[in-house]
Every structure is written in C-alpha cells, then in structure tokens.
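S1.2 Input.
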Amino acid sequence: MKQVVAALILRDGKVLICQRTLHQPMALKWEFPGGKIEPGEQPKAALKRELEEELGINANIGQEVAHVRHQYRRGGVVELRFYEVHEFEGELENKIFKEIRWASLGDLPSYDFLEADFGLVRDLAAGKVL
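S1.3 Output.
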C-alpha cells in the first residue's frame, strides 16, 4: 500500500489545488500538493519535504484533518493523510504541475479531482472539514 501525505494550504477562505501534467499518471487530474512517504520518514516530515520540492515553500505543517484509504479499480491501494497548512515561508513556485490555483472550498467539486480525494472534496465543500 502506498503511503501518501497531502496539504490543505489555506489562505483567505481558499485552498491551493494543483493540476497534474500530461506526463504524470492520471494526467490533468486535480489534487492537493504532497506525495509519497519515504521509508523511515515521518508523515509531517515527508509533507514538509514534498512541499519544498513541488512548491518551493517551507511550510508549517498543522494538524491531520483527514485519513483516507482508497483502492483504485486497477488494484492499487493508497493511504492518504491530509494536513492543514496555514503558514509557510517563501513564494509559491510551481515546480512540477501543469497549473496551481487558489480555489474556494465550495467550488472544489467542480474540479476533476483524483478518485481518492472525492470524499474529502465533498466534505470540504459542505463545510464538514475545517
């Protein structure tokens, strides 16, 4: 099972979302920034590293707000931990995505998110999380 961490980077009632490139698996799907936890790495440390690699920021990782286990139709299983991020140092820099965008929580269901994110997206839009 793949262990993954992702950030809900919040600012002015909006959350940062990222679109995968054409060359990535599940091309052009939207997601929250983050990535795989390396062997021996703690989840918050992994997320801090991933945000530096993907967005060039030094993030203050907050509390875990959701934990999801999802099995894709092709058989892959992913376990996702989502953390809130209210503060970071540095300017956001899109290093790997097709696009990054600040989106209102209520608008999230209108984006084509990864399957594993669907439940959280619905809960965020409905005000059940955060």
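S1.4 Remarks. Helices lie at 43-55, 118-125.
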